[in-house]
Structure formats: C-alpha cells, structure tokens
Amino acid sequence: MHDSVSAPDIHNGYFIGDTSALTRSIQRGDFPTAIGSTSVFSIGSDGGGNAFLTQSDDNGPVWKWRNDIGDYLQLSDTFIGFLGRVADDFDAYSRGDERWQFM
I need a surface site. Which of 1, 42, 50, 60 has the fewest CB within 10 A? Predict the structure, then answer.
C-alpha cells in the first residue's frame, strides 16, 4: 500500500493520494464536494489544478473536475478502472506516444 503517487513529469502531472495534502485541500474547500446530488471527495489532482473525484462510498465512478471550465468528465465507472487508466497514461508517456489522449 502507498500513501500517494506523485508523478509531476507524466503529461501535465498526476498527484494521487497523499492524505495530508488532500485533507488540507478539503478543509480549504479547494475542490467540489458534490456532483448534483452525489457526494464526492478528491482523491488527487493534476498539474493544471483539476481534481479527480470519486463517490464517498464503495468502488464508484471517478470524475475529473475541470476547474477552468467548471465541468465534470467521467473517467471511469470504478476506482479500480481509474487506476488502470492512470497506468495506461504512464505507459503511453514512457513510450512517447504523441497520439495518446491523456486524462
């Protein structure tokens, strides 16, 4: 188990976990706490200030909150699927795949 994944050099940066940093962000109100009537919390962010959000229960969907336009993009139906997508992004970056659509 790991507390966090810090990968500032992958695409525009991925910062997943780090419970202390996420707790501070939640206390400051940096990220949304609901999408419609669904309670969510941040599980990470990218280098552009966008947040990765998931439901407050179970292995639910993961969304990307795009702070510059204020919308939500569903990245995966499950948290496990989201982690798979992170791994795919890391792989594409390491291969230098310029056509890959990063999260």
Answer: 1
CA-wise closest residue to 52 among 67, 37, 38: 67
pLDDT digits (tens, 9 = 90+) for 3-33: 788 899 999 899 998 888 888 888 899 999 9
Q: Where are the domains of the chain?
A: 4-93
CA distance 91 to 36: 33
Structural contact between residues 48 and 12, judged by C-beta atoms closer than 8 angstroms: yes
**Neighbouring-strand partners of residue 12:** none
Put simply, whether the predicted model's pTM sits higher than 0.85 gets the answer: yes
